[in-house]
Amino acid sequence: MEYMSQEGYDKLVAELRQLESVELPRVRDAIAEARDKGDLSENFEYHAAKREQSRLLSRIRFKQRVLEHARVVDISLLGGDAVGLLSRVEMTNLDNDRKMAYTIVNPHEANIHEGKISIKSPIAQALLKKRVGDIVEVRVPVGLLRLRIESIHK
């Protein structure tokens, strides 16, 4: 079971539609065009297009499986007093007094540039079930982070 936001679910559906309705037909056309060029045993374009088709079909199957097991979480039903899935957590790094904010999301929705971290990441795991004011220590590749939770929003 994959719990995710409505936004993440909609994004996955759109990606799947793009792959199925745009990318796959484009690759199939490339295969047909390469096949028309003659001898397939030495036809680089044909083999490249077939590899691309295989890669695309694999991505499509993966996204279909994720959507098949996806459950959209109703944010209004989530409690806001402790950190959990879809919580927006504002915190301070106690070592350098830097502020940061992350939303904890399903691994398929994670995007550090949008401030979304996977619930399976070390930081999210350390933050789970913690409350405002709690100090959390997290071991990350660069060392030990000490974070104080400033606020939690749903």
Helix-strand layout with pairing:
Layout: E1 2-4, H1 6-35, H2 44-68, E2 70-72, E3 88-93, E4 98-105, E5 116-118, H3 122-127, E6 135-140, E7 143-153
Parallel strand pairs: 1-2, 4-5
Antiparallel strand pairs: 3-4, 3-7, 6-7
Helix pairs in contact: 1-2
General description of the model:
Strand 3 (88-93) and strand 4 form a beta hairpin. This protein is α/β, with parallel strands linked by helices and 154 residues long. It is elongated. The strands form 2 sheets. The protein has a 5-stranded mixed beta sheet with strand order 5-4-3-7-6. The mean pLDDT is 90. Helices cover 40% and strands 26% of the residues. The chain has helices at residues 6-35, 44-68, 122-127; strands at 2-4, 70-72, 88-93, 98-105, 116-118, 135-140, 143-153. The two termini are 21 Å apart.
